[in-house]
Structures are given as C-alpha cells and as structure tokens.
Amino acid sequence: MILLKFEISNDKNFFLNQKPFKILSGAIHYFRIHPDDWYHSLYNLKALGFNTVETYVPWNLHQPTKDSFTVAESLDIERFLTIAQKLGLYAIVRPSPYICAEWEWGGLPAWLLTENVRVRTSDPKFIYYVDCYYAKLLPILAKHQLSHGGNILMFQIENEYGSYGEEKDYLRAIKSLMEKYGLEGPFFTSDGPWRATLRAGSLIEDDVLVTGNFGSKAASNFKQMQDFFDEHNRTYPLMCMEFWDGWFNRWGEEVVTREPEELAESVMECIELGSINLYMFHGGTNFGFMNGCSARGQKDLPQVTSYDYDAVLDEAGNPTQKFFEIQKRLKTRFPELITAMPLTKKIKTYPSVTLSQKTGLFGNLKNVSVLKTNPYPLSMEELGQNTGYVLYQTELERDKDDAERLRVIDARDRIQVYENDYHVATQYQDEIGEDIALEMTQKYTNLKILVENMGRVNYGHKLEAATQRKGLGRGAIVDLHFIGNWKHYSLPLDSVSNLDFSKEWKSGQPSFYHYQLNIDELADTYLDMTGFGKGVVFVNNMNIGRFWEKGPILTLYLPKGYLKKGENSIVVFETEGRYKERITFTDRPKIKNIK
C-alpha cells in the first residue's frame, strides 16, 4: 500500500506527496441523505471535477443519550468515507462538538441540558463529555487518515467559534482530545474572514491552519485573511471552508435562490485564488425533528425540513443548472481535470392514496407516550426526551361562576391549549404569556397543553442551555397562582407502530391519519402536504420530517430507500385539525408564494 502525505507547509499551497495540491471540495452530509444515495451524490461530486468531499459529524445523532453511541445505518460514516475513497475522493471531516449546520442545537446533544455544563468552553464537565464521545468516534476516523491508507486530509477543531467565544484554552482542549484518540491532523479552524472572528476563533498562535467562510467576493475576503496571516507572520494556503452557493429556508419566508451563472463566476474567482469547499454540494433533508433554528434578537425562526439549500445538487441529489455552469468553466480553465456526466435519479409521481383510518392523539396516549407525574411541570429534557412534543395535563377546580384567566409562562416553543378536549388557544413566542379565557362551566375542568419543540437554536448567543430547554417552562397560572399536579405525556414519536386506530377521532384535535401506498417500482417522490395544517409524516415508521401550511415548501421529499415494493404505510400526525381524504405525490417540490 502506498501511503499519501498531505502537508500544510510554509508555502501558499497545500502539498500532496510533495506536489502542490488545490482542494476542490463539496459538502455532503451523510446524515442528511439516505445511505442508498451516498454513491449517487459522491459520484456526482467526482463527475463535477472535484477531488474532495467535506462532512460534519453530528454529536446528537451519534450519541442520542449519555450512555449510548451508534454508527448504524445513516450514521455509518466509515461506509461513507470508503465509498468516497473508492471513487477517488479525499475527505475533510469536521468532528467538532458543535457544527451549526442549521441542525438541531448545532449538533450538541439535548441531554447536556440536564448536566449543568457550559457548552463550548473549557468547563471540565463539558470537556469530560466530549472526551467520552470522542473515545468512541475518533478511533473510527483515525483508521481513515491518509497515513493509515484512508482518504481524510484534515480535521476541524471548532466551527465558527470566533462568532461565539474567544477562549483559546477551550480550542486547545478539543485539539488535545483529538490527538489523544489518534487524529494526527492537520487541524484547522473555520470562521468569518474578518479580523475579529479570526482573532477570536483561530489557533494561529499554535500554527493551526486558519480557513474562512463566505459566499462571494473572494478577492476581498481572502485579502482580509491574508492580512491576518501577515500580522502573525504566518504563510498559509488560502481556503474558503464554506463557500455558500445558496442558503437555508425558514418557515413563512420566501425560498432563497441564487443565479447559476453568477454563482459559477464567483466560484471560479475563489478557485483562482485558493482552495474551496462548496457549501452545500448536496444539502439533503432534515429528516425527523433535526431542523435547526435561527435566533434574530429575541425571536426564534425555525428552519424547514428541506435542506435543498439551492445547492449544486437538488434535495434529491440530481444536478441543477449550477452543476453544469460550474463544470463548464472548470473544463475551460483546468482542462486537465477529469469530469463526467452526472447521474440523475428518477423522481416519480405515484397515484394518490385514500385515507384508510384516523384516530385522535388523546385516546392513544398510552400507545405513543410515557406518563410521568409531578407537582410542577417538568421540561422535555427532565423527562429524558430530546425532541418532539410533550402533552401536559391537569385538572382545574372552578372558583367562580364566570370565565377564568389562564396564562402560560415562558413555554417553548409552541403551545396548543385544550379545555375538556376542545381547542381554546394556540400561542407561539410573542403570544405566550397572554391571557387565555377558560369557560370553566363544570366544577372540574380537564386542561391539556400540547407543547412542540420546533428546533433548538443552532447559531449565536442563544446556544446557552438556559434558553434551549423545551416544554412548559415555569408552568401555567390560573387567577394568580401556579397550577400543580401535572401529568406529563412524553411524545418523542420515535415510533407510531403501536397506534390503535379503533380509538375515537374528534374534529379539531391532534390526530393520526393512515394511508396505504402500494407500488411495484421504487423511486424517489415528494408528498404534497397541501391541505394539512402542521405536523410530521411517518413512512413505514420513519419520520421523514415536519410540514406546515405556512410554507414556503409544501412538499416532503421521500427517498426510495424508505419505500418498499408492495404495501407502504404512511401516517400523518397533524396538530391543527386539518387533513385530507387523499394524499397526492409529485415529482418536484411545491413552493408557496410568500407575500
């Protein structure tokens, strides 16, 4: 076996086996793509003419509970790296504890919220938990380093830390842990290209490669980085670790797009001056409850299920016009590059399917949840739950003849209030804390509050644990006192296989709707959720993500890997009391015009 050597020497080039090497990389997150489609996406990256794939590693998926660790199925990063290597692709791996990535809590595991730790610092407890995680993860990655016959070029220590903190001891502690478990480097940090973030987030003092993140104006952004290098008497290759070729989308906002020709010209400007990693090459999907959330001032703005990102490949992994515009320019400027025609998957519009069964959530609590009782409301994290919903239930005694005033205090993120199983209010952020009138026509009233975790913040000042715990918060007040004696029904919705569709369905309540799809041919498709309100969809018991009538994307991408020939089960969990007798499919995303 001939082992390669990748170096960052005192030169303005990277070197591979002592020859100058320009990194042409594209981001593909293995955890956002069905494993059956890894080859398709990686092949298309190689076909573009690029030589490297970049990926984050999400701590919260690999270690969903404190005492677990998994690399099963869609988390089999070894298989992903092996496929890439067989295709002739090198790899950049970013196993930093925090990844941002528009991912639930930036990849930090929710169980940390009960551990009294200060994340992204040298807090000994935080470093201890990172150590435990790295003890399982990093030996796997170490086997795939160039020096071990693998394809990994380098590893990220931290991600855009200069936009969060400036504690160099923390950065050094993470680097030391990586070395402890066999990573030999080279190591790098990635930050915004201006001095403040580079100064705060880099380890240039320790001669760790500094890279920048931007999506245009490569000449001016690289100049800022070069000025920072010169200030510290360092000579590094210039690299944009995240060249943003599109952007992510939030609920209720217009889809963000970028013109292919303009992007291709901007990409070529970057490549002329340095190395590049296209973020994203293939965006993929935030399956399950894994979408992140932006923080704008005091307001949280959750992101949508699709991570199409207007990337070089679309959500399904097929080439967009951006692919061909970039490839055309690459072939002209670098004729020695090997390019090829990309692979294109079939996207099918299956016949619509009819509703077969429906049942209410309230009658199925024993089938889909775990009950705990406590005098005061417990947070989602205290219930041992990471994502999904929690239903809080208690009984109120009438103290006066007219309506009573209910106020819910600091719940996160969105609440739906039911009086004797009838919906009386929905509140989100700005409304939470406002008065809710309860009729209280009986001596005792059954109060239910369904709380949805819509995604933890993935970037910025609100990463701190105090703002990211989900649930009913300090509780609810009737008259002037806090209500007690709560029943807590945890609804992570890890499975819907135990639903009892013989239980009663009532209009206006959160409910489950079952459809059956029979197919002879497996192909990717999109579910059109127009006509439903808000919720999530399960295909053969796999949560393929959230939908919401607010848009802008009204479809859910369904890869063929989650389908099977014959009968397929589709279960829609819908919280607004809106549903359709028939579900339809389409061969492309359906976009809502947001005014």
From TrEMBL:
Signal sequence region: none
Domain Glycoside hydrolase 35 catalytic, first and last residues per copy: 14-331
Domain Beta-galactosidase 1-like first all-beta: 377-491
Gene3D superfamilies, per the entry: Galactose-binding domain-like, Glycosidases
Residue ranges of domain Beta-galactosidase galactose-binding in the record: 510-568
Superkingdom of source: Bacteria
Keywords in alphabetical order: Glycosidase, Hydrolase
Membrane-spanning segments: none
Entry's family note: Belongs to the glycosyl hydrolase 35 family.
Name the UniProt record assigns to this protein: Beta-galactosidase family protein
